[in-house]
């Protein structure tokens, strides 16, 4: 005899698969859903009734008929429900209210101000409490999705290891669920970015993806055969802690010469400031910032590159050199179908992608040269929040990749 719990699970899975089919294929009829999924029309009708009642699906016109009654068409309704997406970085916390297609309805950005450990967790909880208090549609919120750098156990909802924020074994998912009484999901940020490209980006046809992001640190997300690869302890993708300069600068992880120490934005910023103040280098950056080094941003750096500034071009070449070592090693190890690179120093900087392609073409084995496919993210400046949205879509609704 089938247990009630088993039956309920089957019903939930059927509902998720049917909802995902309507999301991808709609407007679509009930009969076509049943045909596509090879399940009974009765199962589809029952699930669709539940989805319509919840507001997830709406009836939207009628389709063509070869004879008899015209079928009623179904369409995914992303506006009825919302999700709260949170992106934690070493510099800021973004919190956004989004619909189920990732459209941002409301967003707040909070500077971290060098907070670490329990202090940043308390700051997050206080900021989220204020954000939730201002949400007049909380009854329609499907849950909270949090993404963060570092080693994350998505199954237990634990931040296991983040040296920059000094977060170790933090049960963040349970803390948030307990306080706000909303289903909560937690994942590594770069894994989420890779998922975001599937759900909201232009690369949904690719199954083997290496997603690299450059910000306060350097992270890597891996998708193998359409599935996020997390590794034994959830620590796969720590490309920022691979050695590119043996015996080089000491890293917070304890190693020397880590990639992260040479290509993240703080390192780039320090290089620019040192070149101006210590080495007396002439650069167009000084004019762009009106001699105020506090105004140096990734956007200023990219603008200087576009103006063919000598110092900025030298720094860019240095970044490309270090980054190419790590990427070429990964190409030879995993042979990804697609490499996506994102981050403030990459956004609106096509020369970055061009130069990394050129550099790698001289570093990989001959058979792979023509197959190198490197692209910048297709998600735009909100790639982090879209990544957060994708985590809850896969976790709660079991949307398929």
From TrEMBL:
<keyword id="KW-0859">Xylose metabolism</keyword>
<dbReference type="InterPro" id="IPR000600">
    <property type="entry name" value="ROK"/>
</dbReference>
<dbReference type="GO" id="GO:0042732">
    <property type="term" value="P:D-xylose metabolic process"/>
</dbReference>
<dbReference type="InterPro" id="IPR043129">
    <property type="entry name" value="ATPase_NBD"/>
</dbReference>
<dbReference type="InterPro" id="IPR036390">
    <property type="entry name" value="WH_DNA-bd_sf"/>
</dbReference>
<comment type="similarity">
    <text>Belongs to the ROK (NagC/XylR) family.</text>
</comment>
<dbReference type="InterPro" id="IPR049874">
    <property type="entry name" value="ROK_cs"/>
</dbReference>
<comment type="function">
    <text>Transcriptional repressor of xylose-utilizing enzymes.</text>
</comment>
<keyword id="KW-0119">Carbohydrate metabolism</keyword>
<dbReference type="Pfam" id="PF00480">
    <property type="entry name" value="ROK"/>
</dbReference>
<dbReference type="InterPro" id="IPR036388">
    <property type="entry name" value="WH-like_DNA-bd_sf"/>
</dbReference>
<protein>
    <submittedName>
        <fullName>ROK family protein</fullName>
    </submittedName>
</protein>
<dbReference type="Pfam" id="PF13412">
    <property type="entry name" value="HTH_24"/>
</dbReference>
């Amino acid at each position: 005899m089938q247990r009630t719990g088993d039956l309920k699970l089957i019903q939930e899975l059927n509902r998720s698969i049917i909802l995902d089919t309507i999301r991808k294929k709609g407007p679509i009829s009930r009969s076509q859903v049943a045909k596509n999924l090879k399940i009974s029309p009765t199962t589809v009708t029952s699930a669709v009734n539940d989805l319509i009642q919840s507001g997830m699906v709406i009836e939207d016109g009628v389709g063509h008929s070869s004879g008899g009654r015209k079928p009623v068409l179904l369409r995914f309704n992303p506006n009825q429900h919302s999700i709260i997406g949170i992106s934690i970085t070493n510099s800021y916390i973004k919190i956004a209210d989004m619909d189920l297609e990732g459209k941002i309805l409301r967003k707040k950005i909070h500077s971290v101000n060098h907070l670490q450990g329990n202090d940043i967790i308390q700051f997050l909880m206080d900021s989220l409490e204020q954000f939730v208090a201002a949400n007049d549609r909380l009854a329609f919120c499907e849950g909270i999705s949090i993404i963060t750098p570092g080693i994350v156990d998505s199954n237990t909802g634990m931040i296991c290891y983040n040296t920059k924020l000094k977060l170790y074994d933090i049960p963040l998912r349970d803390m948030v669920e307990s306080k706000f009484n909303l289903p909560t999901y937690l994942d590594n940020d770069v894994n989420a970015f890779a998922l975001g490209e599937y759900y909201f980006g232009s690369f949904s046809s690719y199954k083997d993806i290496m997603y690299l992001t450059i910000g306060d640190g350097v992270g890597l997300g891996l998708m193998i055969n359409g599935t996020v690869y997390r590794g034994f302890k959830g620590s796969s993708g720590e490309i920022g802690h691979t050695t590119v300069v043996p015996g080089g600068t000491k890293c917070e992880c304890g190693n020397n010469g880590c990639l992260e120490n040479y290509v993240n934005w703080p390192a780039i910023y320090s290089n620019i400031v040192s070149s101006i103040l210590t080495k007396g280098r002439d650069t167009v950056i000084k004019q762009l910032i009106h001699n105020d080094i506090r105004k140096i941003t990734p956007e200023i750096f990219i603008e200087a590159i576009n103006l063919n500034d000598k110092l900025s071009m030298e720094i860019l070449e240095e970044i490309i050199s270090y980054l190419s070592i790590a990427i070429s090693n990964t190409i030879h190890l995993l042979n990804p179908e697609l490499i996506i690179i994102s981050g403030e120093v990459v956004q609106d900087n096509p020369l970055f992608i061009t130069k990394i392609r050129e550099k790698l073409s001289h570093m990989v084995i001959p058979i792979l040269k023509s197959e190198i496919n490197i692209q910048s993210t297709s998600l735009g400046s909100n790639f982090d929040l879209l990544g957060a949205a994708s985590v809850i879509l896969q976790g709660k609704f079991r949307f398929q990749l």
